[in-house]
Amino acid sequence: MFLGVGAPDAFPDPRTADEDGLLAVGGDLSMGRLLCAYESGIFPWYDVGLPPLWWSPDPRAIMTPDRLHVSRSMQRFLRNSPFSVSCNRAFRHVMVLCAERDGGTWILPEMIDAYVQLHEGGHALSFEVWHQTALVGGLYGVRVGGLFAAESMFHRETNASKLALIAAIQSLFAAGVRLFDVQFLTSHLESLGAHTIPRDDYLARLEDALGLAPPGLAAPKAILP
Question: Is residue 225 reached through a cis peptide bond, with omega within 30 degrees of 0 on the bond before it?
Fold first, then answer.
């Protein structure tokens, strides 16, 4: 389906996406359209020179606290970590550093501006990992009701992105989040406990999560008990 600029903030049924998960092309990155997308189980992902591409893959990768895997070596690191963790202290900076990757990036300048607007509207969060005053890791994503859709993460020092993810999962589920979406399964995420579920299952969990209004975010925790 092609979405014209200025078209209503609506999408086709995500179950009609093609075998790769591509659902629609075009439209814009307005706050209304982005929120409609996440509330429908859809997210944007595209490259320089292309119009926005909207995806709803099947299966879908998620993370849950019961399947979060923290290795013994990582637990030892956390007990003696030189890092500190914050939330929403440097949202744009996290996005900019997530965009700095070899081989190109889908985190284009217009996406940074759009997600900063979401953040300023209370719909996007970042978790930052600091080594003294240096930002060495982090992640960002969109939060709507009981959904958190993680978008990207980065590290500049070993274990920094893992620490950001652990802190995000602990804090967000403690605050009432029910669905932690990571979109596609990668070997790195799988090593930390990410797993896939069918899209229909994801959409059912999403409907349940969107009915929740979680309380304020719990203070980030860096170390599992």
Answer: no
